[in-house]
Design goal:
By secondary structure, the protein is α/β, with parallel strands linked by helices. The protein has a single domain, classed as Rossmann fold, CATH 3.40.50. The chain is 39% helix and 17% strand. It has eleven helices and 13 strands. The chain is globular. The two termini are 16 Å apart. Bound molecules: nicotinamide-adenine-dinucleotide (NAD) and UDP-4-deoxy-4-formamido-beta-L-arabinopyranose. UDP-4-deoxy-4-formamido-beta-L-arabinopyranose (WQD) binds next to helix 7 and strand 8. Pathway: Carbohydrate metabolism; galactose metabolism. This is UDP-glucose 4-epimerase. Belongs to the NAD(P)-dependent epimerase/dehydratase family. Homodimer.
Length: 351
């Protein structure tokens, strides 16, 4: 049996792009996803792009018996753990669901891994664990802050849980990857971000305005102490994020303990800069209006990604123009995401 990487949440936005990067790099993978925020069509598209059958199991990371079956059936040597609920707004309404899914799900996964003697784990953390940073750019040694919502707190709890685990047993090799704001899509336009329900994040809202699914963009707050009064974030291409996972997996092969790496570009853009870049790149006018600040938003945040550069030999290579072009290619080819009718070009036989 070949060594296989288990990808939880592999049908989702970042999970599908990382799966593609892993397969392209020759890693056998098996995906586990309960499809609560994704579609089976993303697997079909991955198969089309890789010309391979992709092993996919529909199920929940909290299902211990299922995890045991998966670890029995495959020779798994590492897990990349994306599965999570991720809406900040929803987490305020349903905190228990968020803690149950994210924290209990991770706990369950780690228990199953330990039983199966699998000790390499890459975890999807978030810049949200820094809370409202005292200064930017943010390096890992700034330490964590106080996330202001249950989603963010679930990520911080998981980080602490994983730190305890790594302390307790030297066999564990764990990477905490703190993503900043992933956007963009694979250059094929075949996979991309397709949130169920009304989106919360800036780029999905913006592209849904561009495609006519939303009437106009609401810009939350224009009185922040930033370049133009709107919030500044470190937007990073999802394929760069995916490549960071590949590098982290490689390093974990020979680096026990816990490692923390920021995945960001090191450059911040304001909401208005994003809107204007989108208009320049696509030629599409984006109607917007200002509204009061959104609760919990911080004024600005961008990464110091130099630790990932030093340790992983990784840096983000795609610029804002490419992020926007790729986002738009995905959204315009798939106005209704994976529910769009898209004729896939003929493909060669699968391996
Ligand atoms: P996503 O919702 O597209 O992907 C998450 C996937 O996990 C979905 O396919 C969903 O169906 C699946 N899932 C959720 N709960 C599950 C469960 N109990 N069992 C099995 N599958 C389950 O989200 P994404 O943007 O791809 O995010 C991936 C990870 O990165 C998440 O952990 C998220 O918190 C983290 N993250 C995302 C961002 C971002 O801006 N997208 C930023 C920082 C961190
Ligand atoms: C960016 C900026 C909004 C929508 C969130 C999570 C974080 C991480 C990434 C998962 C903000 C503004 C947005 C809109 C707007 N997720 N905005 N109009 O808030 O930086 O981070 O997603 O881990 O944990 O908190 O990203 O894309 O929601 O917002 O003006 O319709 O765009 O106010 O300033 P955020 P975002």
């Amino acid at each position: 049996m070949r060594k296989t990487t288990l990808v939880t949440g592999g049908a989702g936005y970042i999970g599908s792009h990382t799966t593609l990067t892993l397969i392209d790099a020759g890693h056998p993978v098996v995906l586990l996803d309960n499809l609560c925020n994704s579609c089976r069509e993303s697997i079909t598209r991955l198969e089309h792009l890789t010309h391979r059958h992709v092993d996919f199991i529909e199920g929940d990371v909290r299902d211990s018996a299922l995890l045991e079956d998966i670890f029995d059936h495959y020779d798994i040597d590492a897990v990349v753990h994306f599965s999570s609920l991720k809406s900040v707004a929803e987490s305020l309404q349903k905190p228990l669901e968020y803690y149950a899914n994210n924290v209990v799900g991770t706990l369950n996964l780690c228990q199953a891994m330990a039983r199966a003697h699998v000790f390499k784990l890459v975890f999807s953390s978030s810049a949200t664990v820094y809370g409202d940073p005292v200064h930017t750019p943010i390096a890992e040694d700034l330490g964590t802050g106080k996330p202001v919502n249950p989603y963010g707190r679930s990520k911080l709890m998981i980080e602490e849980l994983l730190e305890d685990l790594a302390q307790s047993d030297p066999r564990w090799s764990i990477a905490l990857l703190r993503y900043f704001n992933p956007i963009g899509a694979h250059e094929s336009g075949l996979i991309g971000e397709d949130p169920h329900g009304r989106p919360n994040n800036l780029l999905p809202c913006l592209t849904q305005v561009a495609i006519g699914r939303l009437p106009e963009l609401i810009v939350y707050g224009n009185d922040y102490p930033t370049v133009d009064g709107t919030c500044v974030r470190d937007y990073i291409h999802v394929v760069d994020v995916a490549e960071g996972h590949l590098k982290a997996l490689q390093i974990l092969q020979h680096s026990p303990g816990i490692h923390i790496w920021n995945l960001g570009t090191g450059t911040g853009y304001s909401v208005l800069q994003i809107i204007h870049s989108f208009e320049d790149v696509t030629g599409i006018n984006i109607p917007y209006h200002f509204a009061p600040r959104r609760a919990g938003d911080i004024a600005q945040c961008w990464a110091d990604p130099s630790k990932a550069g030093r340790d992983l030999g990784w840096c983000a290579r795609r610029n804002l123009e490419q992020m926007i072009m790729d986002t738009w290619r995905w959204q315009s080819r798939n106005p209704y995401g994976y529910h769009s009718r898209l004729e896939l070009p003929a493909t060669v036989a699968m391996k």
